[in-house]
Design a protein that fits this description.
With about 375 residues, the chain is mostly helical. Helix content is about 65%, strand content about 0%. The chain is built from 16 helices and two strands. Strands 1-2 form a two-stranded antiparallel ribbon.
């Protein structure tokens, strides 16, 4: 038997365990980040299927998990917010295509070294600001008060206080219970792989029994069973999306460089950053025809992939396949998930990203220029 086949068989159990773990964690995350981006949660699920699977084949890194992330989601929302709701899907698919084209171009000109000019201070300010917007943007779903789509997120708290009589205690109970269960399950080693998914299931059952008035995913979006039909992005929309797509491409690539340089290959070497650029670009181009959102390498998802025991690229391929199987077999059940439950998970993720006291303190103390770059990026 060839050595490659032997190695593949030896690594399959570990990759199957890692792929299953990242899929179970990724399903609620994918739907939640889609809500942050202002798009139908099903597009987040499609991205978790196809972008993750394509990225497994096309990127240079063995462990890199390509998906819709929190930072990208906030950036996508800023692009789509002015777009009429009926035009959002078509705009999204063109945006994904253009992001892929720019990323592919960066890879072809070997622009990987240029990302080093983006300082840690700028990245810290950007991630912290984006995380805060995630938290503020989900307060409406957490409390049952629907903030207008065009609402300014930074004014979410005053808006909620002004409409305190419209808040739903049931929604708040479901959301806070979800957060509490996630924190509790993370303390139990056997439940960590399902520490995001299991609370969502429990919250869904609770809402159905005790709080039927709480808004569910089905009240804002339809989750069909089955995989998406291919679409052809409408290139007539491209001219107005070129600058936003370039910005998203750069953000995604900077994030991916951070992943690549902190996640060594199985042999201890560092993967070729430019190969990752090419792979992510090709991934987004292909995924745009399958109703996906822009995706990039995710530090937290890749770290989970490694921690879960992944040994080869098959782990990410398995992860995408499992999400696909869930969508095919039980897609419409996702419509029953309470919005406060997804909001609770997103708020928890946002708070964890905002809480970077050591990183912020170091930048503030030791770099005067970095201090103001971080503040300026955060505020902008």
């Amino acid at each position: 038997m060839p050595a490659g086949a032997t190695n593949w068989r030896k690594s399959l159990p570990a990759d199957l365990a890692a792929g299953t773990t990242t899929a179970l964690v990724g399903i609620p995350q994918a739907m939640g980040f889609a809500l942050v981006a202002g798009i139908n949660p099903v597009y987040g699920l499609y991205t978790a299927i196809f972008s993750t699977a394509f990225g497994a084949f096309l990127t240079g890194s063995t462990y890199l998990k390509v998906m819709l992330s929190n930072v990208l989601a906030v950036s996508i929302y800023s692009v789509l917010a002015p777009v009429p709701e009926a035009d959002v899907p078509a705009t999204l698919f063109v945006l994904t295509l253009l992001v892929g084209v720019f990323q592919l171009g960066f890879g072809l000109v070997r622009a990987g070294s240029l990302t080093r000019f983006v300082s840690n201070a700028v990245l810290t300010g950007f991630v912290t600001g984006a995380a805060l917007l995630i938290v503020l943007g989900q307060l409406g779903n957490l409390t049952g008060y629907r903030l207008p789509r065009e609402a300014i997120q930074i004014l979410a708290v005053p808006d909620l206080l002004l409409h305190a009589d419209e808040l739903q205690p049931g929604a708040l109970i479901v959301g806070l219970l979800t957060i509490a269960l996630v924190l509790a399950f993370r303390q139990l080693e056997r439940l960590r792989p399902v520490a995001l998914l299991l609370p969502v299931i429990i919250a869904t059952l609770l809402a159905r029994i005790a709080f039927p008035e709480v808004a569910i995913v089905g009240s804002i979006a339809s989750i069909p069973a089955g995989l998406p039909a291919p679409v052809i992005p409408d290139l007539a929309l491209a001219p107005t999306l070129l600058v936003p797509a370039l910005a998203l491409a750069i953000i995604g690539l900077v994030m991916a460089v951070g992943v690549t340089e902190t996640t060594p290959e199985p042999d201890g070497t560092i993967a070729d950053v430019n190969r990752d650029f090419l792979g992510q670009g090709a991934t987004n181009i292909l995924a745009s025809f399958l109703q996906c959102a822009p995706a990039a390498g995710s530090l937290s998802a890749t770290a989970l992939n490694v921690a879960a025991g992944a040994e080869t690229r098959a782990a990410n391929l398995i992860s995408g396949a499992i999400v696909g199987a869930v969508v095919v077999l039980a897609g419409p059940l996702a419509e029953l998930i309470p919005l406060p439950a997804l909001a609770g998970i997103l708020i928890l993720i946002g708070i964890e990203l905002v809480y970077q006291p050591h990183e912020i303190a170091c930048i503030w103390k030791y770099s005067r220029s970095g201090r103001w770059a971080m503040v300026a990026t955060f505020l902008s």
